[in-house]
Amino acid sequence: MKENFMKEISMEINLKLKKIYFIIILFFFLSENLSSLENKIIFKIDNEIITHIDVENEKNYLIALNPNLKKLKYNEIIDVTKKSVVREKIKRIEISNRFKNAEIPQSLLEQLLKNIYTNIGLNNLEDFKKYLEINNVNYFTVLKKIETEALWNELIYSLYSKNVKIDEEKLREDILKNNAKKIKSYLMSEIFFEVSKSEKIQTKYKEIVNSINNNGFENTALKYSISATSNMGGKLDWINENSLNIKIRDVLAKKEVNEFTKPITVPGGFLILKINDIKTQKSEINLNTELKKLIQITRNNQLNQYSKIYFNKVKENMEINEI
């Protein structure tokens, strides 16, 4: 009888041990599966990969810069995020192909960082770091993004600076003509987009307008714009009307604050501009100082157009597969 009792206890202990063993195995199995899900490859671009974690980190970064992005539907947020992370990966691949051990000056890095955190209403770098931590964004990831954009701009300059055409005499005449007159400056946002061969410009424009009406201009810029400014909701700095080409200047002259333009044809695609604010001031300026500023703005505008064109060429030559 005692032996039977001991056998029953032994069997019960063995059964419990088996259950514990099963639970342990199940736990490791589930952990492994969750880990593999987190590290799932979403894109392959040439020999590089983009994982689920990359997309999740990019989503946190974009929302940190543009909290209104959360107003979009989840699948729209993911579409925006994928587009952003793919664009950055393409640039990094091309940069690595062109440069070896490239670095940007510390002073430039600090200025670009300042541009980002002041744009979201923060006053200093420490506040920015705390803000990123709260929003689950790695500070060094942000530095890498800034470095990528700066090196891309350096690449574009090295390739196309000789192609930039600036009529200094015409710029000088414009400055003199407007001197002592009231001139406008615009605070704007942009959406730069392309139209594929299978699309029509009016159809695309209606789609974008519908998104602007439902989601706002900033979120629509995130969703549709292929410009580098899309991550900031398309926001631009104050732009003096003298630095704009005549076609754009004439279009903006007919618009009020909070209105946006119809698509403007520019090299590489189409541009929609929204006026966020306008200020008018008397222009009593130093000719040489203003001319230098205007030359720089004109050069940057042309290089931005070359950047968009070159990016599209690079993208076409890469093998991009969504898994």
Describe the overall structure.
The protein has 11 helices and 7 strands. The chain has 323 residues and is an alpha+beta fold. The strands form 2 sheets. The protein has a 4-stranded antiparallel β-sheet with strand order 4-3-6-5, with helices on one face. Strands 2-1-7 form a 3-stranded antiparallel β-sheet. α2 (52-65) crosses α3, α3 (74-98) packs across α6 and α7 packs across α11 (287-316).
What's the quick description here?
The chain is of the alpha+beta class and 323 residues long. The chain has 11 helices and 7 strands. It folds into 3 domains: 1-38; 42-163, Triger factor/SurA peptide-binding fold; 175-284, Chitinase A, domain 3.
List the helices and strands and how they pair.
Blueprint: H1 2-38, E1 41-45, E2 48-51, H2 52-65, H3 74-98, H4 106-119, H5 125-134, H6 139-160, H7 168-178, E3 182-193, H8 201-215, H9 217-224, E4 235-240, H10 246-253, E5 264-266, E6 269-282, H11 287-316, E7 320-322
Antiparallel strand pairs: 1-2, 1-7, 3-4, 3-6, 5-6
Task: Tag the structure with descriptive keywords.
323 residues; Triger factor/SurA peptide-binding fold; 4-stranded antiparallel sheet
Total domains, how many?
3
Q: Which architecture of the largest domain does the CATH hierarchy give at level 2?
A: Orthogonal Bundle
Average pLDDT, all residues: 84
By secondary-structure content and strand pairing, the structural class works out as alpha+beta
Span of the ends, CA to CA: 65 Å
Rg, Å, rounded: 27 Å
At CATH level 3, the topology of the largest domain is Triger factor/SurA peptide-binding fold
Top CATH class of the largest domain: Mainly Alpha
Instruction: Report the total helices.
Output: 11
Tell me the total number of β-strands. 7
Largest sheet: 4 strands, antiparallel
* Strands ordered across the widest β-sheet: 4-3-6-5
Q: Which segments are poorly predicted (pLDDT under 50) over 5 or more consecutive residues?
A: 25-37
